[in-house]
Amino acid sequence: MLYYSLKRFALALLVALTVSLISFSLLYISSDPAIAMAGETATDADIEAIRQLYGFDRPILVQYFDWLQRALAGDLGQSYYFRTNVSALIAERLPTTMTLGVTAILFAITLAVPLGVAAAIRPNSLIDRIALFLSVMGQALPSFWFALMLIVLLSVNLRLLPTSGSDTWLHLVMPTVVLGYYAAPAIMRLTRTGMLEVLSTDYIRTARAKGLRPPVVLFKHALRNAIIPVVSLAAVQFGFMLGGSIVVETIFALHGAGFLAWESITRNDLPTVQGLILVFSLFYIVLTFFADLINAWLDPRIRIN
Amino acid sequence: MASSSKSEPVKIAAPLWGRSLRHQGVVIGALIVAMVVLIALCAPLIAPHDPYYQDLLARLKPPVWDDRGSWDHILGTDHLGRDYLSRLIYGARISLLIGIGAALISGLIGTIMGVMAGYFGGRVDMVVTFLITVRLSMPVVLVALAVVAIVGGSLQVVIMVLGLLLWDRFAVVMRSSTLQIRSMDYVAAAQAVGCSTTRVLMTEIMPNVVNNLIVIATLEMAHAIILEAALSFLGLGVQPPLPSWGLMVSEGKDMMLFEPWLITIPGVALFLLVLSINLLGDGVRDITAPENRN
Amino acid sequence: MTDHVLNVKNLSVDIPLADGVLHAVDGIDIHVDRGETLCIVGESGCGKSLTSLAIMDLLPKKAIRTLAALDLGGESILDYSERQMSDIRGNRMGMIFQEPMTSLNPAFTIGNQMVETLHRHRNISGRAAHDLAKHMLEKVGITAAAQRLNQYPHQLSGGLRQRVMIAMTLLCEPELIIADEPTTALDVTIQAQILLLLQELQTEFDMGLILITHDLGVVARIATRVAVMYAGQIVEQGTVEQIFDNPMHPYTRGLMQCIPVPGKTRPGEPLGSIPGMVPSLIGRFTGCRFADRCSLVTDACRSDDIALRDATDATQAYRCILDPRAMAKVA
């Protein structure tokens, strides 16, 4: 188990480095950071001065290692637009996004897992068809449109929920639903498939032959095995939510990292964008790493090699 | 050791039509997709107005089913007086172009990577798998937004960016399909006879992974369409005055309370198109390789 | 006369399929007493596993069972609800399956899976349950029982897992155990050990044992009585001595000829075999199901359904229209 973890950790590190290199070069290749930094009213001389001052004329790899060095120390540079430390900026905005993400994935799981289990218990029944129908519908629904429709319906017409802002938990309801629904279909399908498979195994037959009651057979014996891949998937979906948070936070005016991404992108604030790409990637890498570990831990056959 | 112990993969052939008809999802999906394609192709013929023509005197007219609507503008007009039906029709072109373009580019990249990894194994496989992991760790929306913002938004840029980012599922599925096919006896037979690598790839491997390729292509097409809509909605995709459906929703959102059709109509169009492409893809997969369901 | 531990009358199992109804089991009557081992013998597909599942009411949802009577320890359990059946399963009636490698849940320890039975049926948990489980593991010949309780199934070999299954089934001291090919998936040496173990435990707990197998060697070793099944029907039944020394039904005879007997079979002499295949059981079937493969077949064999008839000794019965004296004359 330890060896397995170390191997995965080393791989994760390598991936993180590669991602940072790629995003760094992407941004620096596709634009001139000196121009972006100087702003719109700068003269050519100003731009050149900035270029020299900040070392934008050095080879990309040199710039990258410079940036990497500072990044490892926690310094992600200065935001052009906000005029503050990028790390501080991101650190300030991240908790909102995390809260939103956690509630969203919990929402998705609470919706999808029971539905998947119910569908698996009675395959081809009404509940099964409804579950599959909802999952197909859910995957085709554009999140931004769903958000707007919900706002029109719940905030304006029915006056049930506030439109934007983040003062009370009520403010989180619609953003949670909009961010979470997209993860639900995949989770539901995997739960359903997993349960169907597990329910036809020999050990479930043994459990029934022992006279265990149906809820025990279902939840203790079956689900415990079927849920293993679902945990991984949920972690992966949680990672995707960071990307989805850009749209959701922007529409609902939540001041999280996703909204920051939109703000800094539209203002060509390269250091912030870069920092965000790094943070988002790291987050995703860490998440999949832990998902792998949890996966291995949940299965005694891997845990006790 | 007998080759009969491994089952032959299903090749797409004429008998498939009979089974398709029984699968309602595929039929509905295929019909709607065909309809959208037809509409997009015949846009100049069926659009009642020029989608770019602004008639400020006729701004924000509701669709025909509203009391104040008229048959002149069946789906109403937007804030610049442009006919919504015409914009919707031309918007179909954009969505389809995005979908097909991005799917082609990412399909090419991903298939080459996946098949190479699956066929040659060893170091090639290691590198490709690593690249896939790297790509999966990158926040697609964020990177796409950033690149488009820097390079400038346009139809071509969006297609390129999405094409260069959405190849991961192609690579993963093509790799596993190739791995599976490579172990089949008929591949070994072709190699034993002395066929060149290219020939083996073209005649033995490709025809058998094509089923999965089509399924993934439809799914990624739908994925690209939704992503472009989101990008355009955020202002960082296709630029005005192009009638991208995502852009139409964005332009209409300020007025959505009193003129809701401005966002409902393009939204429903997006939903239906993506839904039908997904149904088509799911259906094709269920028919040709139901074991790949997850 | 005391009641049989298990009494089954006219058991049929039908499975609706796309091309018709498969009559997998047709009119089976069996009974077992305490201290008795009934072996149900037959080839794959003859319906013996379905019979055992039907008795436990564990058939797959599509299968339909019909019974005239089903009594456990004299009590009718024919119309028991699922809830009542689950109270009996693992408690008064236990089952051991064929594949020990996959019959235990990989996610829980042996101890956990054993204790849950005690908790379910005897309301015993904690230390007391743990001790009982340990005691039972030792009884089935597992050394270092305490450690085994904390191990997971994948850490045990096939033979050990089967012992665990047996121990688990015995925890509530059932009146009846049904063992469906318990040794088929095991090495030959382990097979012998497991069979011996089952015999000892049966004597100690005074249970009825139904052992399903396709291996006549197992039958010879462990059976008190034998029921030979073919194509969903019992074609012969009797004591183990009767079946081996005086098989009546052509199928049984054919089976006996397939076994090499040390001392009797001469080297170089070909072993017997039964030509042909089991008939399809979909839809209505008239006449003897063995007709196509029988060397003694006549037209009368195919025209009507054949009932079981007594042999010269009334405790033996066979399903053939030829009468006992004529059968005795056949080589």
Structure commentary:
The complex is a heterotrimer of chains A (305), B (294) and C (331). Chain A has 305 residues and is mostly helical. Chain A has 14 helices and no strands. The model of chain A has no long low-confidence stretch (mean pLDDT 85). In chain B, helix 2 crosses helix 12 and helix 4 packs antiparallel against helix 5. The N terminus of chain B is likely disordered. With 331 residues, chain C is an alpha/beta fold. Chain C has an 8-stranded mixed sheet, sandwiched between helices. In chain C, strands 1, 2, 4, 5 and 6 form a 5-stranded antiparallel sheet that branches. The radius of gyration of chain C is 21 Å and the shape is globular. The mean pLDDT of chain C is 87. Chains in contact: A-B, A-C. At the A-C interface, helix 10 and helix 11 of A face helix 2 and helix 3 of C.
Chart the SSEs and their pairings.
The complex is a heterotrimer of chains A (305), B (294) and C (331).
Chain A: H1 2-30, H2 33-38, H3 44-54, H4 60-72, H5 86-121, H6 126-140, H7 143-157, H8 170-180, H9 184-199, H10 202-209, H11 214-252, H12 257-266, H13 270-298, H14 300-303
Helix pairs in contact in A: 1-4, 1-13, 5-6, 5-8, 5-9, 5-11, 5-13, 6-9, 7-8, 7-11, 8-11, 9-11, 10-11, 11-12, 11-13, 12-13
Chain B: H1 16-22, H2 24-41, H3 43-46, H4 84-120, H5 122-137, H6 140-151, H7 155-165, H8 168-182, H9 185-193, H10 197-233, H11 245-252, H12 261-288
Helix pairs in contact in B: 2-4, 2-12, 4-5, 4-7, 4-8, 4-10, 4-12, 6-7, 8-10, 9-10, 10-11, 10-12, 11-12
Chain C: E1 6-17, E2 20-32, E3 37-41, H1 48-56, E4 64-66, E5 69-72, E6 75-76, H2 82-88, E7 93-96, H3 110-122, H4 126-139, H5 145-149, H6 158-170, E8 176-180, H7 188-205, E9 208-213, H8 216-222, E10 225-230, E11 233-239, H9 240-245, H10 250-258, H11 299-303, E12 309-310, E13 317-318, H12 324-329
Parallel strand pairs in C: 3-9, 3-10, 7-8, 8-9
Antiparallel strand pairs in C: 1-2, 1-4, 1-5, 5-6, 10-11, 11-13, 12-13
